[in-house]
Design goal:
alpha/beta, Rossmann fold, Jelly Rolls, six-stranded mixed β-sheet, five-stranded parallel β-sheet, 7 helices, globular
C-alpha cells in the first residue's frame, strides 16, 4: 500500500502521515526533506515554487514510490501534491496511489504556520499554495479529512478509507493534446526531464491524430531481468516505447523515473558540444525493473 497525505503547508500532513505509517507498519517519508537547496532557499526568501522548481522534486519522490512498489514495501508519504499534474507524476511511481487530503479553514492554517518554528516554509506563502491547490477529483482514490478534527479521529478516518476497495478508474475525457516526455541535456550539461504538449488536432473527433512526423527507422530491443547500463548519453534523438516490462531511467543526483507498458519518452540527452564525457555530470542510466524482461521499441526521429 502506498499512501500520500496531501495538503497545503501547515495542514498537519506530516503529523498524520507519521501516525498513519506507524499504525500500518509502513515506512514514513517526509516529502519536504527531498527539496534541494535551491528550492529551500527560494521558499525561505518568500518566493513560491513554480512547476519547473517542483519537477525534479516530484520525480525524485515518484522514484522513491516506485522503489516501494518494486520491493512490496508499504509507504506513507507526506507531500503537498497540490495540483492534479503533480499527483499524476507521483502515480507514475505508484499507479495504485491512495490520497488522504487534509483540508480546513485558511485562517486556522495561517495560525498554525505563524506558531511553527524552525521550518523554511514561511507563512507568507500560504496564499500562493491555496491558489495552486486543485482538490482531488473522481478517479484519484482520495478522501477528504477536516484538519479541525482531533488527531485520533483523523487517523481513524484515514484508516477506514484505506480499508475500502479503491475507486474504479474514471471515464477520461477525449484527449486534445498528447504529452511528450523529453529526456534532454540542460544548460549545465546534466540530464533532466520536461513535458511538452503535442496537439491532437487532425483526424476526426472519434480518432484524433497529431501531425505526421518524419522518422529515421526503428529498432526493437529485449533486455533481460537484471539489466542495467552505466551512465551514458543518447547518440541520436529517438522515441522509446515500452512494450513489455518496466524501464527505469536514472539521472545525476538520484532522480529517476519508471516507465511501464504503453508509456514512452523522447530521449535527446546528448553530450554537450566540445565536452568530454564525465560520468559524474553527464548522461543517464537505464535498467530493467520488476519480474519481466524489458522489451522496448526505439524510433529515430
Amino acid at each position: 500500500m502506498v499512501v500520500v497525505v496531501m495538503g497545503v503547508s501547515g495542514s498537519g500532513k506530516s503529523t498524520l502521515a507519521a501516525a498513519l505509517a506507524q499504525a500500518l507498519g509502513a515506512r514514513f517519508v517526509e516529502g519536504d526533506d527531498w527539496h534541494g537547496p535551491q528550492n529551500r532557499a527560494k521558499m525561505a526568501a518568500g518566493e513560491p515554487l513554480d512547476d519547473a522548481d517542483r519537477q525534479g522534486w516530484l520525480e525524485a519522490l515518484a522514484g522513491r514510490l516506485a522503489q516501494a512498489v518494486q520491493r512490496g514495501e508499504n509507504l506513507v508519504l507526506a507531500c503537498s501534491a497540490l495540483r492534479r499534474r503533480y499527483r499524476d507524476i507521483l502515480r507514475r511511481g505508484a499507479p495504485g496511489l491512495r490520497l488522504v487530503w487534509l483540508d480546513g479553514p485558511p485562517v486556522l492554517i495561517a495560525q498554525r504556520l505563524a506558531a511553527r518554528q524552525g521550518h523554511y516554509m514561511p507563512a507568507s506563502l500560504l496564499d500562493s499554495q491555496l491558489a495552486t491547490l486543485e482538490p482531488p477529483g473522481p478517479g484519484e482514490n482520495a478522501c477528504r479529512c477536516d484538519l479541525r478534527d482531533a488527531p485520533g479521529e483523523l487517523l481513524r478516518q484515514a484508516g477506514a478509507f484505506l480499508q475500502q476497495p479503491p475507486d474504479p478508474p474514471s471515464q477520461e475525457p477525449a484527449l486534445t493534446t498528447f504529452t511528450k516526455t523529453i529526456l534532454f541535456t540542460d544548460t549545465d550539461g546534466r540530464a533532466r526531464f520536461r513535458e511538452e504538449p503535442l496537439a491532437l488536432d487532425e483526424g476526426t473527433p472519434q480518432s484524433r491524430l497529431s501531425a505526421l512526423f518524419a522518422s529515421g527507422g526503428y529498432q526493437l530491443r529485449q533486455s533481460p531481468v537484471g539489466f542495467r547500463s552505466q551512465f551514458h548519453c543518447t547518440g541520436a534523438p529517438q522515441w522509446v516505447f515500452i512494450l513489455q516490462g518496466q524501464m527505469e531511467i536514472g539521472l545525476q543526483g538520484g532522480v529517476s523515473r519508471v516507465f511501464g507498458p504503453g508509456q514512452h519518452f523522447y530521449s535527446a540527452d546528448h553530450l554537450p558540444e566540445g565536452a568530454t564525457f564525465d560520468p559524474q555530470v553527464h548522461g543517464h542510466w537505464s535498467r530493467q525493473v520488476g519480474p519481466d524482461p524489458l522489451v522496448t521499441l526505439f524510433v529515430r526521429g
